[in-house]
Amino acid sequence: MIKGKATYLNHLYSRFNFKTIEVGESVSGASPPSVFIGKEGYPKVFVGPLIPPVHGDTMMMDLPEEWFKTNKTVEDVINFRLSLVRGKETLDIKDVQSKTALKLQEIALAKNSLELEAEFTKKPRGVFFNEDIQPFGPSAELKEMRVTSGKMERHMEKFYYDTDLKSKEAVVNLYNNGLVVSAIQKALSVGAFGLEKNRKLVPTKWSITAVDDMLSLHLLEKIKSYPMIEGYRVYESENINNKFVIMLLPMRWFYESMEVWFPNIIGDKLEVGSDYERFDGKKGYASIGGAYYSARLAVNELLENEKRQAAVIIFREAYPGYIPLGVWNVRENVREAMKKQPKKFDSINTVLEYVGTRVKTPMKEWIKQSNLLRETIQQRKLSQFIRT
User: Fold this and answer.
1) 221: in domain
2) Strands 254-261 and 343-345, how do they pair?
3) Final residue of a structural domain among 181, 216, 251
4) Is residue 224 in some structural domain?
5) Is residue 223 part of a domain?
6) Pair (211, 256) in one structural domain
7) Tell me, what's the pLDDT at 387?
8) Same structural domain for residues 55 and 10?
9) Which of 322, 302, 326 lies closest to 314 in space, CA to CA?
10) Same domain, yes or no, for 242 and 206?
11) Which of 61, 59, 47, 56 lies closest to 98, judged by CA?
């Protein structure tokens, strides 16, 4: 993680003074459906539902894929999320057959919003923001939770009862059947898939990255065998105070994601971070966090659709006023960029000149940070020297 992010997130609520929902020691409403599995204390973690004091269809409160499509603003998203009250109960991650875990599975796999009632040990308080996870409102420990029986999404139900199928296969099958990524992530977090003996609760933050990683690697298995794209391309998207410029190069697969956080977001100077992988894959967890995997999935969806491979460089700039709302912002921003017609170029020089006009950070700073750009430029100079 970029130095300073944690401090920024810790002070976010006090800086912006967001108004969260006020509820008493009980709440009744329709969960979008939504659950949250914490990671503190692992393998014993806080688990529970997210419930707004609202009835009816609340699915939009936890459906990030639709937020871009319907032009929801930052304020819209924050209002959705801070209306969700989190109930908490401590469970061991292996307790997937406990009464609470079974209720959470019923919620996470529901086809539609699900009516819930919750009683707490005290009045819920606080607010939660994180770079990887969608925010939510006040929290309190659960005393009791009642769930109105609903209908499971049929594909989810099929893999829930298939205890001989590995979780990765379930995730890929659900994706191929058109289920949105955010729904698959929730289901994985409550231990709904996998071999019966291996099922366990997965912290929400980890399940988000796990699904993005699984799906992008699944696509990449095929992408690496495809012919390379012709020429250089640049795609762009700007939303929620984030700018994404995605460069595709006519080379074998190589992926690099770079990001710059501007002054007054997490400090008084530019904060730069990056990570990358070569053709043989990524070792270890990306230093820039879940955004690395979310962006990779969005790019790989385009390459798989075109049956082509490329080297990929992502330039991300987060501007003052940016409020972390989860890595869905990265995935959907990059997806939005890849839907547009790209700008095309015939040389590394011309494409770099263009990218330099589309970002605020000087290109020399990007090149200094980048492994792929430095290698490409050096190889070009060497080839020119050999020809002469």
Assistant:
1) no
2) unpaired
3) 216
4) no
5) no
6) no
7) 42
8) yes
9) 302
10) no
11) 47
Residue type, 41: G
Tell me, what's the pLDDT at 55? Answer: 96
First to last CA, the chain: 44
Q: Give every strand in the sheet of 271-277, ordered side by side.
A: 271-277, 254-261, 311-318, 242-249, 232-239, 343-345
Can you give the pLDDT at residue 379? 73
User: What order of strands is seen across the sheet that includes strand 85-92?
Assistant: 26-31, 114-120, 139-147, 85-92, 44-51, 35-37
Q: Which residues, at least 6 apart from 68, have a Cβ–Cβ distance to it below 8 Å?
A: 239, 332, 333, 335, 336
Residue 284 lies in a domain: yes
Residue recorded with tokens 């409020």: 323
How far apart, in whole angstroms, are the C-alpha atoms of residue 122 and residue 235?
49
Q: Name the phi and psi angles at 372, rounded to 5.
A: -65, -45
Contact 326, 244 (CB under 8 A): no
How far apart are the C-alpha atoms of 347 and 369, rounded to whole Å?
21
The residue count of the chain comes to 388
Residue with tokens 């987060």: 318
Q: What is the pLDDT of residue 19?
A: 72
191 with 239, same domain: the answer is no
- Considering the domain architecture, whether residues 200 and 54 belong to the same structural domain is answered as yes
What's the pLDDT at 385?
A: 36
* Region for residue 40 given its phi and psi (left: phi exceeds 0; alpha: psi -120 to 50; beta: otherwise): beta
Compute the C-alpha angle 203/204/210, nearest 5°.
90
User: CB-side exposure of 248: number of CA atoms within 13 Å?
Assistant: 23
Tell whether pTM > 0.85.
yes
Question: Domain of 206?
Answer: 5-216
Task: Please give the tally of structural domains in the chain.
Answer: 2
pLDDT at 382: 42
246: helix, strand or coil: strand
pLDDT given for residue 16 in this prediction: 57
- 182 and 308 together in one domain: no
Output 13-22 pairs: Cβ under 8 A, ≥24 positions apart.
13/127, 13/129, 16/323, 18/78, 18/82, 18/127, 19/82, 20/82, 20/126, 20/127, 20/137, 20/138, 21/52, 21/53, 21/82, 21/83, 21/84, 21/85, 21/137, 21/138
- Please give the pLDDT value at position 388: 37
Same domain, 90 and 150: yes
Q: pLDDT value at position 217?
A: 98
The residues of the chain scoring below 70 in pLDDT are: 1-18, 264-268, 380-388
In this structure, are 210 and 249 located in the same domain? Answer: no
